[in-house]
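Handout, page 2. Input:
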Amino acid sequence: MPVDFQQVFTKIKEIGAGARERRERIESLRVHARHLLEKNAEDLDFLRLVVERAKEADPGIRCAVPLNEPLDARVPAPAPVMDATLIAADGSQINPDRHDAVQFCLVNVGAITLRLNSGNTPDIFTESELLYGDELETRFGTMTDGMVALKRDLRERAALEELAAQVQGPVVTFTDGPIELWGAKDGEDAESYSESVKAYLSVLSRLQERGVINAGYVDKPSADLVVRLLELVEANRENPDSLREYHPLRGVSDRWLYGERSGPLLGPGERSAVFHIQSKSEKDYRGALSLHFFYLNVGTDGHPWPVRVEIPRWVAEDAAKLNLLHAVLVDQCRMMGSKPYPYLLHRAHEVAVVKPEEKFQVGQMLMQELRRQDEEVGEGSNKQSAKDLQGRMRR
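Output:
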């Protein structure tokens, strides 16, 4: 038996025994967090000062910074948008695997374009880039999974720009996940990350020049940026030795603050205040491209579902574009019924995802061509062969 269920069961019983104590502790912290939010909701100058003081102690601290709306602001959904073009992009990849007979990489990006109220069906676009041989090599060795992910994310945004350039009138683009390009900022991937960020910022700048709204949609967000701001308010009073280790509200989430079932800060379709993101990425995302966000409740009465929507500063400061994005996302999420998520992003994912059988097929096609050209083709690892054998035996 691969899992010792007796050990697991014993641990589960221990977890259950501590459930009441954990619940009471979290409830107490939640009450305190809500009190801090309500007490400081409109004292924006003080909150910004608190963040500035925290930056002096820890320049890389990551938290929300209020702009000009109170912490408990709730902005209702604008009227539905009648004239705009929506573009969503998503990507997936096959990473190089040393256990395969031939190593290759595939980056697959899918994008969907929809003109609202045009009567036309969405247009679907796919781009598949296969990398092999020297294309997989870097100064530090074979391309890592992180480098492939960077390449995928950059191609997603580039696809948005290319498609938006063909459209007249208002355009709203969005991808799944943060606007910030994620990757290893240190170590062997640092050079690839730096180069990708430069190219990415150029894409964002060109979108801004065309007035194309771009946003990142984060479903079920885990980053507690507003809660961290409230912790800094506490730190301002208690003056702890280390801000990085000071988490008096650990266990309280932004999702709970804005989506508490019994009394959510946001009603269905409402957005929160817009915040600036204070982080060490500020050195890259500056000026009009600096990172901002708001929370949006795409759920229903009795079942709130707050998501985080990331936008650049130039969108955050344009009320008309902010309202357009707000209305579009509410409408897109309602199209998915009881599991709200932007419909076009869902479609883009369907187009972009690479299935296991497709990976196998690409590998077979590549090996056949190499053999046809009399090029040496290796064998899969014995480890992988053993795994495949175990799978057949289980069937």
